[in-house]
Structure formats: C-alpha cells, structure tokens
Design a protein that fits this description.
InterPro entries: MPN (IPR037518), RadC_JAB (IPR025657), RuvA_2-like (IPR010994), UPF0758 (IPR001405), UPF0758_CS (IPR020891), UPF0758_N (IPR046778). By secondary structure, the protein is α+β, with helices and mostly antiparallel strands. About 50% of the residues lie in helices and about 15% in strands. It has a 5-stranded mixed sheet with strand order 2-1-3-4-5, sandwiched between helices.
Amino acid sequence: MGSPPHPGAGHRGRLREKFLTHGLGKFTDEEALELLLTLATPRQDCKQQARGLMGEFGSLRAVLEAPPADLAQIKGIGPKNILGLKLVPAVARRYLEDRLMDQAALGDPAQAAEYLLLTMGPLKQEVFRVLLLDSRRRVLASEDLFSGTLNQAVVYPREVVAKALAAGASEVVAAHNHPSGDPTPSGADRRLTRQLYFACRGVGLALLDHLVVGRESLYSFREQGEIVLLAREYDAMNLEETAP
C-alpha cells in the first residue's frame, strides 16, 4: 500500500492547478512563496513557512533578494528552500539577458528597462553598465565597466568609448543604479551624461540613452528630452568652431 496523502496535498494541488491555469496573476505574494517552497519540501504544508517569510521581509521581492543567512533564520526554511529561492531570480536574470541579446533590434532603449530593473535595482553598490549596439541596434554586449561606493561610481568616458569601438558598436546605452532606490538623477549624473554624449559623438558613436535605475523604476535621459538638448548643444558648438 502507498503512503496516505499528507494533509496539505489537496491545497498544494490546487495551488499548482491555479498557477498552470492563470499564472501568478491571481496569486498573492504569500501564495507564490508557498508554491515555490513546495518544490523543495515534499509531503509537507508550506503555508507557515511562507507566512513567516512574508512576516519577516514584507514582500516576495524582498524575500528573493534576502541573503541566505537571513532566510535561514526563518523556522522551517532549510538549505533546499534557500537554493530554490535564490535560483528563481538568477534564472530570471539569465532569461532576460538572453532575450535582450537575442532581439533582432532594440527599437527603443526602454525595452531594456525590465532587464535593468531586475539585475541592477537590488544592488547595494553603484554599478555603471553599458549596452553596446551595432548599426541595426542589435545588442552586442552588456557589460559592467565600473563599480563604486554606495553613493559614487568613477566613470571614465574614454574607457566607455574604447570598449564600444573594440566591440564594433555604433550606439551605446549607458545605465547605472542608485542603491538608495530613488532614480532621480543628481547633478553629477547630468554632468556624466554630457561627458559621455560628447565623447561618443567625437568618435562617431551615438549615446542613445543614459538610464538611472532605482529599486522600482528608472529615469531615462532620452525620454525626458535631455539627450536632444545635448545634441543641440554639441551641434551648436561645432558650428561655432567651423564658422569663418
């Protein structure tokens, strides 16, 4: 005779069926965690563990971003659960990066927002990243070039230009995160954007955008019209230099 079903088997089965039918759209964060925990916890109700995680961290995202040592403090959360919780965002990041690289073209830099928010939003230190694009706006590479303290990253525009030219890129999308979670650009961010734009234009590259990534949203210099203003400034300066 087989073992009798555990008390939570029916509930677990209903959660799985709900996901297969509707996806996560109709799940609360706690239900999503509960379903995820069942994958590494056979024959055991995971409702209390999910509730404990939510009580401690407050949201699904916070749980998935929590350090393993903090997760281990929750009653009922063992090494297999922690592996599953850390694997999910890692796989999601890999999927989004592969999808970004496989696109026929990046028609709008904002298409990279989902990838940047997931991969840069949780970072605890400031990181400067570039997406290098060819003349058809296909992504050739996504690279982290600089990292810094919690409030400052040292970025050298000439190194960005050198990296882009070495990759055979025609266009560049720059991005950096604000560990504070607020994507509002600082005066230093605006000065950096200007330096990057002028350095790129000087060698025939196009800076399509500079994105400041917060925890939940990002700021696009292009969407806010600031790249257009830089283009006008650059063109005006060159007209003055070539005027008789």
